[in-house]
Amino acid sequence: MSKLHIITPVKDSLETTRRTIDGIMSSEIDANFSYTIYNDFSSDETTQQLTNESEKQGFSLVNLKDITSHASPNYLLILQAAQKKAIAENAHLLIVESDVIVEKNTIQKMVDSVDRLQNPGMIAAVTTSEDGNINFPYLYAQKFNSGIIEI
User: Fold this and answer.
1) Residue 1, C-beta contacts closer than 8 angstroms, at least 6 positions apart
2) What's the CA gap between 18 and 130, in Å, rounded?
3) In this model, does residue 127 exceed pLDDT 80?
4) Cβ 27 vs Cβ 106: under 8 Å
5) pTM for this one?
């Protein structure tokens, strides 16, 4: 069974982030996982709402204003901190953007793929619109069949 760190960078996108959080926290995941939201200098209102959500749903919240004075965006800092944590715990790292709705079995399918493959470099899921159409910038993926694709 794999260990998994899931992260979501956030900057003032509260409503979509709530949907992302709900999707991840209600996912059917067999792996031991942790979930961290990296709040990148959101407004005080969004920060308070994220704090409330973290207490209610049990994910970790890192407010970047507590660790850096560098103005947003801090995507590189987020990736470096998450990678360091994942490496230290021999865990896989999954990045879910704050505007992505996660289906109940998507994360488990990705974990299963990682466990089946020998030395995978990256596992990714293509996002789709609510009506199932592939989103930009993944339009190139329309030519592939669903499943594992080696590039």
Assistant:
1) 30, 31, 32, 115
2) 16
3) no
4) yes
5) 0.86
